[in-house]
Amino acid sequence: MLTSKQRAYLRGLANGESAIMQIGKGGIAENLIKTISDALEARELIKLTVLENCMGTPKEVANELADATGADVVGVVGRKIILYRESVNNKRIELKL
User: Fold this and answer.
1) Angle of CA points 50, 34, 38, to nearest 5°
2) Nearest residue to 58 (alpha-carbon basis) of 85, 19, 7
């Protein structure tokens, strides 16, 4: 579980990043979960865009992806989702308590 300070720090890091993937009417499938999990392992912090034709709201999609990948939802801003999962093998971001 992330603290509010950690989430604020991660939101700041993600602010300058562009979304690496879009989630549309196809929703969340196994191959999408695998791709997002691989991206989290490589980068730890990712930003995604939920298109308007997606069946769920961005908050619902964020929670479903977080549960499926073992990630934490850093934030949902408009149609953008920010996810974080600490990588054991490829540590890139140091979070302070």
Assistant:
1) 95
2) 19
Q: Which of 47, 57, 44 is nearest to 15 (CA)?
A: 47
Most confident of 1-5, 45-49, 87-91: 45-49
Higher pLDDT, 22 or 92: 22
Domains, the chain, in order of start with CATH, read 4-84 (3.30.110.60)
State the first-to-last Cα distance of the chain, in angstroms, to the nearest integer: 11
Residue 84 Cα distances to 5, 17, 18, 52, angstroms: 14, 13, 15, 23
The 10s digit of each residue's pLDDT in 27-64 is: 888 999 999 999 999 999 999 999 999 988 999 999 99
